[in-house]
Specification:
The complex is a heterodimer. Chain A has helices spanning about 5-25, 30-50, 55-80, 100-110, 115-125, 130-135, 140-165. Chain A is built from seven helices and no strands. Chain A is elongated and about 50 Å long. Chain A is mainly alpha-helical. In chain B, strand 2 and strand 3 (about 75-80) form a beta hairpin. By secondary structure, chain B is an alpha/beta fold. Chain B has three helices and eight strands; from the N terminus they run αβαββββαβββ. Classes of the chains: A mainly alpha, B alpha/beta. Chains A and B meet through helix 1, helix 2, helix 4 and helix 5 of A and helix 1 of B.
C-alpha cells in the first residue's frame, strides 16, 4: 500500500506520462489538463482511503483511462440531445483498405459518438482486450462486441468521407 | 492470425510535458489535500433560537460536551466523534443569512440520529425534563427509534440497535 507522499515523489516522472496519455486521446489541452488533475486528485483520494495498490505510472494511466471514459460519457449526454443522422442499423462491415492513413483515421475517430469513440480508443488505440473494454464501459462482452462492430462501420464511413475529400 | 487494419490506430504512451504553471499548480493541489476522510470529524450544524437552552439540552440530556462558546450566537459541542455546531441565525455578522435576506430557521424534518444504550430509560429521562416528543418509541428497521425536539424545535432521533442492525465494520 502506498502513502500519498509516494505520489508526490513520483509526480515529476508520472505527470508527463499521464498527460502524454490523455492529450492525444482527447485532442484538447484544456480537457487534458482537467483530466490530468482529476487523475492525480483521485489517486491521492484512493491512497488516503487505502484503496490504491503500489502506485506506479501504469496504475495512474489506468486511472486516467477511467477519467477519459467518464469524460466521454458526460459528453455523450450532451450529444444525445442532438440527432445523430446516418447511424447504421446493422453492423455490416466492408473490408478496410490494406493500409490506412493514421492521421485521417484518428480524425475520423473524433467524429464518432462517445460510446463508439471510447470503444475504438480502448480496443485499438490503447490495445485493450475486449473484456477489458467491456469492463471500462460497464457493458457485457457481447454488447461490447456489438458496439465495436458498429463503431467500426461508423469509423469506416467517417474515414472514407474525410479521406475522399 | 490476420492483422487488423485498425491496429494502425495504436498509440503508445509518449511523455508530453504539460505547461509548467499547470504542473506546479497541480502539485500544490495534491500536496495540500486534507487528511483522510475517515479521520475527519463528522460535523452537523443546527440553527437554534436560544443558545443557552440548547447547550443545556444537548449537554445535560444527550451526553454532549461543550467545547467552545465564543459568542452568544455560536457554540461547538462534541459527542464522541460527532461535532455539533449550534448557531443562532440572524445574529452579529449574520453569515448564514442569504443574499436575498432569507434567515435560516430551526425545525424541519432532517435530523441527526444518536445511538443510545437504553432507549426506554433515555425516553423516561427526556419525558421527566418535559422534552417535546414527536413520536414515542417505535420499532424501525434494524433499530428501535424515538423522535424528540430540542428547545428550538429541531428534531433529534434516538436509536437503539435491534435485530438486523447494520453498520459498516471498522476497516
Amino acid at each position: 500500500m502506498s502513502e500519498p507522499g509516494a505520489l508526490v515523489a513520483l509526480y515529476r516522472e508520472a505527470l508527463p506520462q499521464v498527460y502524454g496519455y490523455l492529450l492525444p486521446r482527447c485532442g484538447s489541452v484544456v480537457i487534458a489538463e482537467d483530466l490530468t488533475a482529476e487523475t492525480f486528485v483521485a489517486a491521492v483520494a484512493a491512497m488516503q482511503q487505502g484503496a490504491a495498490p503500489d502506485v506506479n505510472v501504469a496504475w495512474l494511466i489506468g486511472v486516467a483511462r477511467h477519467k477519459l471514459v467518464d469524460h466521454w460519457r458526460r459528453q455523450g449526454r450532451d450529444e444525445r440531445s442532438r440527432a445523430i443522422v446516418g447511424q447504421p442499423d446493422q453492423a455490416v462491415e466492408d473490408p478496410w483498405d490494406a493500409t490506412l492513413d493514421r492521421a485521417a483515421l484518428h480524425a475520423a475517430l473524433a467524429e464518432l459518438n462517445w460510446s463508439q469513440r471510447a470503444a475504438i480508443t480502448l480496443r485499438y488505440v490503447d490495445g485493450l482486450r475486449v473484456a477489458e473494454v467491456a469492463e471500462h464501459l460497464g457493458r457485457s462482452v457481447h454488447a461490447t462486441e456489438t458496439l465495436l462492430a458498429r463503431a467500426k462501420v461508423a469509423l469506416r464511413r467517417s474515414y472514407r468521407r474525410s479521406h475522399d475529400d | 492470425m490476420t492483422t487488423d487494419p485498425l491496429d494502425a490506430l495504436r498509440l503508445p504512451v509518449l511523455p508530453i510535458e504539460p505547461r509548467p504553471e499547470f504542473a506546479d499548480a497541480l502539485l500544490r493541489r495534491i500536496e495540500a489535500r486534507p487528511g483522510p476522510l475517515d479521520r475527519q470529524t463528522a460535523t452537523i450544524r443546527y440553527f437554534v433560537a436560544d443558545l443557552e437552552a440548547s447547550v443545556d439540552f444537548y449537554c445535560r440530556l444527550l451526553d454532549f460536551e461543550e467545547e467552545l462558546r465564543p459568542s452568544p450566537v455560536f457554540a461547538m459541542l462534541y459527542r464522541g466523534d460527532l461535532r455539533l455546531l449550534l448557531s443562532v441565525p440572524g445574529g452579529a455578522g449574520a453569515v448564514h443569512t442569504l443574499p436575498d435576506g432569507t434567515v435560516p430557521e430551526p425545525g424541519g424534518w432532517n435530523r441527526m440520529t444518536l445511538q443510545v444504550a437504553d432507549l426506554a430509560s433515555t425516553a423516561d429521562s427526556l419525558r421527566r425534563h418535559r422534552v417535546v416528543f414527536r413520536h414515542d418509541i417505535q420499532a424501525g428497521i434494524g433499530v428501535r427509534t424515538l423522535l424528540v425536539e430540542d428547545p428550538s424545535g429541531n428534531p433529534v432521533e434516538l436509536i437503539e440497535p435491534a435485530e438486523g442492525y447494520h453498520e459498516r465494520s471498522n476497516r
